[in-house]
Amino acid sequence: CVICTDPIYGDEIRAPCGDYYDKECILDLIQAATRDESLFPPRCCRQVIPLESVIRFMSIDLIRLFHEKKKEFGTLKRVYCANPSCSRFLGEQIDGKIRHWLWPSYICDCATRTCTRCKARYSPLSHRCSAAQQDSDVLALGQTAGWQRCPGCEQLIELHHGCFHMTCRCKTEFCYVCRAKWKSCACPQWDERRL
Questions:
Q1: Which pLDDT does position 117 carry in this prediction?
Q2: Cβ neighbours, 10 Å, residue 77
C-alpha cells in the first residue's frame, strides 16, 4: 500500500497512476478529503482517484458525505447556516431580490432561516440586509491590510509569504500584485521581504 507501505492481502485499489492502496487507507484518504478542501477530490500523483473504483468499499454515510462535499466545494459563493451551532452548508449565494423588499433565503434543517445575500439570520418581515455595509467594511479592511481579491470569484486573499503566484480555491491563477492572469504581466515573481 502506497500509504502504509504494508503488503496488501485483502482488497486492493489501483489508482490511475498505478499506485495501490489497501481498503483502510483509501477510506482514510476519502474521509480526509471530506474534511479538508485542499485534499478534495482524493488524488494520487496529482491524478483524481475515480469514485467508481472505491465506492464499493464506502459506507452509505460516506457516499452521502462525499456527494455533499462535492457540491459544497464546487460552489464558489457559499452560504452557511447563520446559526453558529449549526453552520451547515446551504447552497450558493443569491444576490438579487425576489421583490423590492424581499431577499432570497435558505431554511436549514435546524429551522434557522439565512439570508443568501448578507448571510445573517433572516426574518421576512423585519430583515434589513446589511451586506453592502458589511462588504464595504471588509473591503476597506482588506485594502488597508494589502489584501487582494481573486479576479475569478472575488474572494479576498492574503499573501503571508512566498511568491506572487496565487491559486485561489476557484482554481484561478493570478498575480498578487496586479491581479492579472498569471504570467501575463511584467510584475516580479516575488519580493525578497516576503520569502
A1: 82
A2: 15
